[in-house]
Structures are given as structure tokens and as C-alpha cells.
Specification:
377 residues, eight-stranded parallel beta barrel, binds flavin mononucleotide
């Protein structure tokens, strides 16, 4: 069905379509009969798909990556479409317009997007209002970032403000220090600057009644030496894990012509061409930390085999964005089918013994000090 509609949608400006889709979904969200329909067609629950990490029980390991539900407007609907968790944001303390338009482009030959949105969002306070209608069973992660207008001294305060205001309303946090077009990402990923931000957040968390997991989202372009320093910081300081990762600045291996790429200008590439880079990063982090640091694998996942491969490479959970745009609302269900939970019901009907589950059962949550090994979670 989506394959029929997609050519029409793709005739329009991608940001316009995104905005319209968000509006329609937000409008439709309260309709409970629609929720039932979505769940019936798209949601695929099975005990073998469940995961348990850091005290949170995920219905399945596939989440929606940051950037689609920037303002926390459609996470309920996204959960009905099958996602095991939803990352909202990036949210900055103050609302911001982002970069001048046009700033989002489809590279259809590559099943990719080029984005220089510049972290446009309506600000943390707006998202807080939207989070009040959250259904408790939905796992929501808040991706937080700095305001582009903030100077270097204000940056840690920006993160702290967003973190503190959202703390009671979400289940986990992703600290975005890797956006390619807003601010100076190389500086933020420098561990001395990063630790200024993170120390404040971890101290703040220590004052809170409930412990909530904190992840750091990195760029797949980060040099290994810088990555090693961050992994070391994360392991030593009780950061729960890494989101690997964000868009890439690299134009390598694209089928889109150089002429067109030059005409579009700067931006991060998301989608299929990113996959090998993110997979490499997940493997690297998993090997380097000997599985002690949970990873959310994100970048270019376009089919079930890749979802499986990313999990096998050491990701505890995975996230998708561009694949969902290209494949439509049935995408998550197709990915989950590929993870192949045992078909107990069918087997029982036939009176046969259930096969061994293809997936490992949900694992014990990692202790908060990250000292236990989490091999290939
Ligand atoms: C239009 C667009 C907007 C995005 N906005 C954000 C954002 O605000 N914060 C963030 O951390 N990542 C953002 N991302 C990056 C995605 O979360 C994800 O890391 C990236 O797209 C790679 O995954 P994918 O290949 O499945 O799309 C954005 C991506 C796109 C395409």
C-alpha cells in the first residue's frame, strides 16, 4: 500500500511531507479505534522479542531514532506502529528555528536523506506539555541538545536545563553531542568538553529520587582516538551506553551524482549508505569495551537482515529513521518478523513441539556501575 502512495509523497518537498504527516498523526492520535487498527496491522508482540535493560522492559529492541518526533507529538502513535521505544527530540531549552530552508533532501537513488535541519524544535517546555498525555507502557527517551545561540560557557547549562526539566517525564536520556550542522561537533565530542557537560548531568542525576539511564549519541565520523576517550569516560562514570550513531558528513560511495550533491550543499547523510559505518562503530565499541557498555545501533538499517546483523554485532537495541521514510508504516513489523520469534501458536495448533527460540530470552539488566559483562546483548 505504502509503495503505491510513496511516489506521490516523494513528489513534494520532504520537510513539507514530514510536517503534514506529524500534524495528521497528532490529530489522529486520540482516536482509540485507530489505535486498535494500527496495533492489529503493525504491532508484533512476542515474549522472544522482549528485552530488559537498566530496569526498563522493552517490548522489542527496535526504536524510532531522534529527529522524527522532535517535539514529542506522535510517540503514542509510533508505539502503536510497532516501535519498542521512541526517542523524541533533539530538544533544546529554548525553541529554535534551525537552519534556513530548504534543508532536507531525498537522495532516492541511495535510499538516503541529506539533512541540515539545525535542530529545529519547539523547546523543552512545549514537549513537556505533550508528554503529559503519555501512556505509561510506552518507553520514551529524550534526546537533548544545546541551543545554537548559546556560547561555549552556556553549553553545559543548556544540557542541564533540558535534562532537569524532562527528568520526571521520560524513561531515559540521549545526550546529543554529534549533530553535524549546529555548533561545533568536534569540540563537543572532545572528552574534556564532553565531561564538562556529562559531569553536570551525572551529578544532577545523583540528586534525583529515581535513577534514569543516560546515553551519549556520537557521530560515526568520530576518530577512534576520540571515541576511545569517550568510552573510557563512559565506563568510569556510570554512563549507561552509547548511541552509535548520528548522520555522517562523508559522501563516499553514494550513487547520487556529484553535481547534485554539490548543488545541495552541506548536511549529514542518513539512510542506507550509512549502514556499514554504523555497523563498524557498533562492532568497535562492543569489542573495545568487551560488551560492558550497552549500545543502541543506529544508522542505515534498511532491512531485517541488517537489523539482525546490528544486534549480533553487539547492539542491545537498534533505532531507525530513514528506513521508515522509505519503507513506510509496515517497516517495523517487517524488521521484527526478520528477528524471527518462534511461531508458538501455529506450532501448538498443529500439535507440534515449539522450536527453540531464535532469539535469546530477555537478559538481566546491567548493574548501574556497568561492571558486569554484557556479551552480545
Ligand atoms: C530529518 C532528520 C532529522 C534528524 N534530527 C535529529 C535530531 O534532532 N537529533 C538527533 O540526535 N538525530 C537526528 N537525526 C539523526 C537520526 O536520529 C539518526 O541518527 C540518523 O538518521 C541515522 O539513522 P537512519 O539512517 O536510520 O536514518 C535526524 C535525521 C534526519 C534524517
Amino acid at each position: 500500500m505504502y509503495k503505491l502512495i510513496r511516489p506521490i509523497l516523494f513528489k513534494f518537498n520532504p520537510e513539507f511531507i514530514h510536517k503534514m504527516t506529524m500534524k495528521v498523526l497528532h490529530f489522529l492520535e486520540p482516536l482509540s479505534f485507530l489505535r486498535g487498527i494500527n496495533r492489529f496491522f503493525f504491532r508484533k508482540d512476542h515474549p522472544a522479542l522482549e528485552r530488559e535493560y537498566f530496569g526498563l522492559k522493552f517490548r522489542n529492541p527496535i526504536g524510532l531514532a531522534a529527529g522524527m518526533d522532535k517535539n514529542g507529538e506522535v510517540y503514542n502513535m509510533m508505539s502503536d506502529l510497532g516501535f519498542g521505544f521512541v526517542e523524541i527530540g533533539s530538544l533544546t531549552p529554548k525553541p529554535q528555528h534551525g537552519n534556513p530552508k530548504p534543508r532536507l533532501f531525498r537522495l532516492t537513488q541511495d535510499k538516503a536523506l541529506l539533512s541540515r535541519m539545525g535542530l529545529n524544535n519547539k523547546g523543552v517546555r512545549h514537549a513537556i506539555e505533550n508528554l503529559r498525555t503519555r501512556r505509561p507502557e510506552i518507553i520514551v527517551a529524550a534526546n537533548i541538545a544545546r541551543n545554537s545561540s548559546s556560547n561555549e560557557e552556556q553549553v553545559p547549562k543548556d544540557y542541564d536545563t533540558a535534562f532537569s526539566l524532562l527528568y520526571d517525564l521520560v524513561d531515559m536520556f540521549v545526550v546529543n553531542i554529534s549533530f553535524p550542522t549546529a555548533g561545533r561537533p568536534t569540540d563537543l565530542q572532545d572528552v574534556s568538553f564532553l565531561s564538562e557537560i556529562m559531569d553536570g548531568l551525572l551529578d544532577r542525576r545523583a540528586t534525583m529520587e529515581e535513577h534514569k539511564p543516560v546515553f551519549i549519541k556520537l557521530s560515526p565520523d568520530i576518530p577512534d582516538i576520540q571515541l576511545d576517550a569517550i568510552l573510557d569516560y563512559a565506563l568510569r562514570n556510570g554512563v549507561e551506553g552509547i548511541v552509535a550513531g548520528n548522520a555522517t558528513s562523508s559522501r563516499e560511495g553514494l550513487s547520487t551524482s556529484e553535481e547534485r550533491l554539490n548543488s545541495l550543499g552541506k548536511g549529514g547523510i542518513c539512510g542506507a549508505p550509512l549502514y556499514e559505518k554504523s555497523l563498524r562503530m557498533v562492532r568497535y565499541i562492543h569489542d573495545k569495551t568487551r560488551g560492558k557498555l550497552p549500545i543502541i545501533g543506529c544508522g542505515g538499517i534498511s532491512n531485517a537482515a541488517q537489523a539482525r546483523e546490528m544486534l549480533d554485532a553487539g547492539a542491545s537495541l537498534i533505532e531507525v529513521y530513514t528506513g521508515f521514510i522509505y519503507e513506510g508504516p509496515g517497516f517495523v513489523e517487517r524488521l521484527l518478523k526478520g528477528l524471527d520469534p518462534p511461531k508458538e501458536k501455529k506450532e501448538k495448533k498443529k500439535g507440534k513441539k515449539s522450536p527453540e527460540p531464535a532469539l535469546p530470552p530477555a537478559e538481566e539488566p546491567l548493574p548501574q556501575d556497568n561492571t558486569a559483562t554484557q556479551e552480545n546483548a
